[in-house]
Amino acid sequence: MEPSQKTDNILLGVIVVLLVILGYGGYRLYVLNSLYATALTTTQTLTESHDILQGELTRAREEKINVQNELTLQESRVNDLEQQIQDITGTVGTLEKLSKTDPELLQKYSKVFFLNEHYTPPKLSTIDKALVYDESKQQQIHRQVWPFLEDLIKDAKNDDVSLFVLSAYRSFGTQAALKTGYTVSYGSGANAFSADQGYSEHQLGTTVDFTTTGINGGLNGFETTPAYKWLVDNAYRYGFILSYPKGNAYYQFEPWHWRFVGTDLARVLHRQNMDFYDMDQRQIDKYLVTIFD
Question: What is this structure's pTM?
């Protein structure tokens, strides 16, 4: 083979190889371009889908927030309604309770209000004779006051303090007879320590005159006894208050005379160091509903 022919063959081979390489390279470039285009399209599609999903997610979150807000609002309305129902129920219960509670029980008597001759407590209980100083005389107390009085006397005994009931409920007629007797003995001076009929707290059936051992079952000297000191420190716990303390505007100091007004009011008077007759009647009346609680 001639040298020139050999050279041509080599060039031809080189050209073929180059063409193959170029063809393969072009194919690769085509494939890469196709893949890139596909990837770009896919990316755009995914981006669009992401944006759509993100938008839907945002809307879903907003709807969730709206639903939660609406639920909170509805719960608040339900709670308000329940509270209104409870308030109404409580008001009805309070009114019903008040309708069954004698309004006279917290009124100020002693020359202020008047109880007529027909007034008597709705129910009276006979006080246990063991707690009455003179067992031959029957003493009665308002039925709903009796448990408080019984606890008071028994708890005093547990503290080694002797307390006995000297006088409790008195009818209009009994008070009239008592006042007449005092007037005969003391004249107008009886007004300093004895109420006229209709003005006595005893007619309410919620008031007790106490006595103790060591003073012959009377009243004189009661102020100096451990019994009086115990009552001053503890009677309010059982709903009893001292009606006529020193310096009151109605009667002489009566350390033996204690009136039941309920534990709520008695605690307030004790805590504030106030006297029952110095408190406004409108304030007193607020405690009527809980007087026997």
Answer: 0.67
